[in-house]
């Protein structure tokens, strides 16, 4: 045993010496991988600084990367408007004003409509299915390809889980109740609201409370009980509807400036990727845990009584949603490829969920 340990120690010493020689050689040759080079990066987000879950995720990334890199990389996080406005995060990271962004892909639909596939689609895949598609179903490769022309590398920051349907100042009983309704809602649901005669509004979270209070908006959705409670939306709206048919599990995204990311030493790239995965899992779990507690708080302390959208309305919205999703295939050859991959994976999920999650969810209530 002692002899084995001695040999192991000798081997380890040899390996360290070899590593050190490699490092010297790279330094002498002027390589980019100098061991002590440090990096100070900026991260811009679409959320208020330190907002629960959404705003904490980038802070956690910064903390993990600094610890894992032994201080070689420091990331400074800027909230909505601190360096750039929320809805300019995509352009800021693309241009290199900041190296990292945090937001959601459907915010960029005006510039890259195909990006909507990688956040969430109304009546589409839920958060768990989306993450499976992205990581193991070919979604990630398509997402990366879509962002190449913008000098960006996307990564999933996890899912919000199924969202709530939103806050309204009147009852919603049929699709006619959406006519003329000025509602903040993101992504493809904007096109659905337009078809119903409503007025979709693109607006970052930080402006919602005031907009609803002053009548700029008649209704707004935000995320779920955890985040909706944080903005105090219950104070100014009468009705809280579910389920969030428009967002059955939004994927939150990190974007990296591609040039800056690829210029990093390989170990720092891997540290960033690994830290993002850890943050993504944590955020997904945080939403589920805290949404449940926050719904209780809304009901017990603030008198909120959640209402379910009528089933015939949900059926009508679903029919329109499927038509709008299929229109995305006509956007571009890239849109057609993403649409095919999404639909194929969604079909396999639907078939499997019948005998797994859905079957179990029904069974445990018997
Ligand atoms: Ca939302």
Sum this structure up briefly.
The protein is α/β, with parallel strands linked by helices. The protein has helices at 2-28, 56-68, 89-95, 127-136, 139-147, 189-195, 208-213, 225-231, 258-262, 266-302, 311-327, 333-355, 357-363; strands at residues 39-45, 73-78, 100-103, 152-159, 166-168, 182-184, 199-201, 219-220, 239-242, 251-257, 307-308. A six-stranded mixed β-sheet has the order 7-6-8-5-9-11, covered by helices on one side. It has a five-stranded mixed β-sheet with strand order 2-1-3-10-4, with helices on both faces.
Quick one: overall form? Answer: globular
Helix share, percent:
40-55%
Rounded to the nearest angstrom, the distance between the terminal CA atoms is 59 Å
Structural class: alpha/beta
- Helices and strands, in order, run as HEHEHEHHEEEHEHEHEEHHEHHH
Going by CATH, the architecture of the domain at 39-160 and 249-289 would be 3-Layer(aba) Sandwich
| Ligands, deduplicated | calcium ion
* Extended strand count: 11
Using only C-alpha atoms, the radius of gyration works out to 23 Å
Largest sheet: 6 strands, mixed
Low-pLDDT segments, ≥5 res:
1-30
Q: What is the highest CATH level, the class of the domain at 39-160 and 249-289?
A: Alpha Beta
CATH topology of the domain at 39-160 and 249-289: D-Maltodextrin-Binding Protein, domain 2
CATH superfamily of the domain at 39-160 and 249-289: Bacterial extracellular solute-binding protein, family 7
Query: Which oligomeric form is depicted?
Result: single chain
Structure, explained:
- The protein is α/β, with parallel strands linked by helices.
- The chain has a domain at 39-160 and 249-289: Bacterial extracellular solute-binding protein, family 7 (D-Maltodextrin-Binding Protein, domain 2).
- It is 48% helix and 13% strand.
- It contains 13 helices and eleven strands.
- The chain has helices spanning 2-28, 56-68, 89-95, 127-136, 139-147, 189-195, 208-213, 225-231, 258-262, 266-302, 311-327, 333-355, 357-363, and strands at 39-45, 73-78, 100-103, 152-159, 166-168, 182-184, 199-201, 219-220, 239-242, 251-257, 307-308.
- The strands form two sheets. A six-stranded mixed β-sheet has the order 7-6-8-5-9-11, with helices on one face. It has a five-stranded mixed β-sheet with strand order 2-1-3-10-4, sandwiched between helices.
- The termini are far apart.
